[in-house]
Amino acid sequence: MLVLSRKAGETIWIGEDVEIVISEVKGEQVKIGIRAPRSIDVIRGELREDVSNSNTEAVLKNLDIFKQK
């Protein structure tokens, strides 16, 4: 993992297409903006985890259905 220090208004580039902009730093909260092509999904980590957990639950329920038959 790369760890960087940035100030408000500074940017970080990922490859040629993704720019991370630090828009505000207030206490322990940092607001960022992300400029990326529409073909790249940008999703908050906690939402990704929720979707993953929901998918796992759905698979386990389907396996239970097959075991009952």
Automatic annotation (TrEMBL):
Q: Does the keyword Cytoplasm apply?
A: yes
Sorted alphabetically, the Gene Ontology cellular component annotations on this record are: cytosol
Q: Which SUPFAM superfamilies match?
A: CsrA-like (SSF117130)
**GO BP terms in the entry:** bacterial-type flagellum organization; mRNA catabolic process; negative regulation of translational initiation; regulation of bacterial-type flagellum assembly; regulation of carbohydrate metabolic process
InterPro entries (UniProt xref) = CsrA, CsrA_sf
> Per its record, what are the GO molecular function terms?
mRNA 5'-UTR binding
| Locations listed in the record | Cytoplasm
Major localization listed first in the record, in broad terms: cytoplasm
**Does the keyword RNA-binding belong to this entry?**
yes
Q: What function does this protein fulfil?
A: A translational regulator that binds mRNA to regulate translation initiation and/or mRNA stability. Usually binds in the 5'-UTR at or near the Shine-Dalgarno sequence preventing ribosome-binding, thus repressing translation. Its main target seems to be the major flagellin gene, while its function is anatagonized by FliW.
The protein's name in its UniProt record: Translational regulator CsrA
The gene name reads: csrA
